[in-house]
Task: inverse folding
């Protein structure tokens, strides 16, 4: 059945908010996934700049049929401050990528970037347990990935970011869970088993590469969080060096499965089950 034929005035709306927004793949896939579960809901993109974010949320929250919000760059930290409650991991990292409406009208937030990323690594044969990982990017996605990698049992995690203060803040937040396994990193991937780009670098053709690709080796796994283009210059270069790769789309598929669970009400009879 055509998904559009199921939409009506009774449909719930879930917004996806970012700046930019044209690159996101959530609207079609998430709408189809929700309807496959028997949920009358549609995911709609909103292009909102950081300057307009507070006013946007205040205004759109008045819509009674707006039941959720999906958050992408650069708003994951800002949306945390707009939540009335969050998961424990979002509380630790001060970041969210999904919100759902609470019974009192407020927002409950969580973040699935880390879990989705680790699931993608495992699916590609690159289970992170016991591995040495270089993570480039200490933003919202990078923070969640860092925590999930530690929980997945990496032997060591080095974090690199062009903003030293942001990197230091993330390392400080992770310290209780890290047990000495984290340290500042650099753009040199030498000696690591897994190299992760969790920055926007690669969305544009003229972006700089996140690491020194001449120091990649065939034994490494290179992973990216960017979904468009799927084959980023970093992944192309890594593959040319003989590395196994995992794309942002593969990560996104893992995140989508978790988001669908997040937006499925408790006790709902799932058609896919």
Result:
């Amino acid at each position: 059945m055509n998904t559009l034929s199921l939409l009506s005035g009774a449909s719930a709306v879930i917004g996806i908010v970012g700046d930019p927004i044209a690159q996101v793949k959530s609207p079609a896939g998430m709408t189809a996934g929700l309807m496959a579960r028997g949920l009358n809901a549609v995911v709609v993109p909103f292009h909102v700049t950081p300057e307009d974010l507070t006013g946007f949320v205040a205004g759109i929250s008045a819509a009674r049929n707006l039941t959720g919000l999906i958050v992408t760059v650069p708003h994951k930290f800002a949306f945390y401050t707009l939540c009335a409650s969050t998961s424990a991991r979002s509380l630790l990292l001060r970041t969210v990528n999904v919100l759902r409406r609470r019974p009192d009208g407020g927002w409950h937030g969580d973040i699935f970037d880390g879990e989705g990323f680790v699931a993608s690594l495992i699916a590609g044969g690159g289970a992170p347990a016991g591995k040495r990982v270089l993570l480039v990017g200490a933003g919202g996605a990078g923070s969640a990935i860092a925590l999930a990698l530690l929980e997945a049992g990496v032997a060591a995690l080095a974090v690199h970011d062009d903003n030293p203060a942001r990197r230091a803040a993330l390392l400080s937040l992770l310290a209780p869970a890290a047990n000495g396994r984290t340290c500042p990193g650099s753009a040199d991937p030498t000696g690591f088993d897994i190299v992760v780009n969790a920055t926007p670098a690669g969305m544009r053709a003229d972006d700089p590469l996140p690491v020194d690709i001449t120091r990649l080796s065939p034994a490494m796994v290179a992973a990216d969080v960017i979904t468009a283009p799927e084959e980023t210059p970093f992944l192309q270069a890594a593959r040319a060096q003989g590395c196994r790769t995992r794309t942002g789309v593969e990560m996104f598929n893992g995140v989508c499965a978790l988001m669908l669970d997040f937006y499925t009400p408790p006790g709902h009879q799932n058609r896919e089950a």
User: Anything to note?
Assistant: The first helix runs from residue 26 to 36. The mean pLDDT is 93.
